[in-house]
Design brief:
Blueprint: H1 10-17, H2 21-31, E1 43-45, H3 56-61, E2 62-69, E3 74-80, H4 87-101, E4 115-121, E5 133-139, E6 147-157, H5 170-181, H6 191-194, H7 197-205, H8 213-264, H9 269-276, H10 280-284
Parallel strand pairs: 3-4, 4-6
Antiparallel strand pairs: 1-2, 2-3, 5-6
Length: 286
């Protein structure tokens, strides 16, 4: 059995970043697009009643930690274990709710502070690009230096991450290595992670020996739920793919039938091809 538990799971992720303020501060400063004078200095966790309510399916696949810093900026940190096309819209909705919730009747709009939604995604969702880091915010489409500072959505595709440098973004690399390299099969943590005080502390927190029987049951239950969730999503995708394939096959048969009828009525092959989209070769074989 491995020495460590996977930090992406709900019990481990929340034990690291939901109970140790200095570690979530380190994670936020490493992962968010913040300038030097915008770094997070201190945070307070959201009260339980403010954390977004989840449907059961979301509770099984989303891990979240929510907090506010001394500048009143809001931070929603999530680990998304399964991906659906609606996830980005849900992130936008929850970030918008957090932004709107700051406004009290009669308050000056200038008091509204930015909301940052940092989302680690355990599946690829932008398959046509190599970048693992995706930052969305309100920016003028022509004058890109003109920004409305309100909602900041960051998505990190963990499976695309490859540690390529330890210079400019050292802590980002270290935290992403921690999230992608440490799991149930890890017998010995990489030296680079152990040498960093914050990541080394996180490694101590996810040591298997640090979890009691109840915590281990919760850990195992989380992964069982993830497996079930993935099976459900894959089943829906298979049904959708089959429905699309059946529809395409039906449309193809209708097009071939129409082409046969036009050919029987003496239509020129070129006209049939233009109308149906079939090639001359396909029409000749009908």
């Amino acid at each position: 059995m491995g020495k460590y538990l996977d930090p992406r799971a709900d019990p481990t992720f929340k034990k690291i970043f939901g109970e140790h303020k200095h570690l979530v501060i380190s994670l936020l400063n490493a992962m968010l697009p913040l300038k030097e004078d915008e770094q997070v200095e201190s945070i307070e966790y959201w009260p339980a009643e403010k954390v977004p309510d989840r449907m059961q399916a979301e509770k099984d696949s989303i891990v979240d930690v929510c907090c506010k810093d001394n500048k009143q900026r809001e931070f929603i940190v999530e680990m998304q274990m399964t991906w659906t096309d609606s996830f980005k819209k849900r992130v936008l909705l929850n970030a918008s709710k957090a932004y709107v919730a700051q406004s009290k009747k009669g308050d000056d709009y200038e008091l509204l502070q930015p909301v940052y939604a940092l989302n680690f995604v355990n599946e690829n969702f932008m398959n046509d690009v190599d970048d693992y880091y995706h930052y969305y915010h309100l920016v003028h489409d022509k004058y890109t230096d003109q920004v409305i500072d309100g909602l900041h959505l960051i998505f990190v595709e963990l499976k695309k991450f490859k540690p390529t440098t330890f210079s400019e973004k050292k802590m980002q690399v270290l935290w992403l290595r921690f999230l992608t390299e440490i799991n149930d099969d890890t017998r010995e943590a990489p030296a680079e992670l152990l040498e960093n005080a914050e990541v080394s502390e996180a490694l101590e927190i996810v040591e298997r020996a640090a979890f009691d029987d109840g915590e281990m049951r919760a850990y195992d239950k989380f992964w069982d739920a993830i497996s079930s969730r993935k099976s459900e999503i894959n089943a829906v995708k298979r049904e959708a793919d089959k429905a699309i394939a059946d529809a395409k096959e039906e449309a193809k048969e209708k097009m071939l039938d129409a082409a046969r009828k036009m050919r029987a009525k003496g239509y020129a092959f070129e006209d049939i091809a233009e109308i149906t989209g079939l090639t001359i070769e396909q029409i000749e074989t009908l």
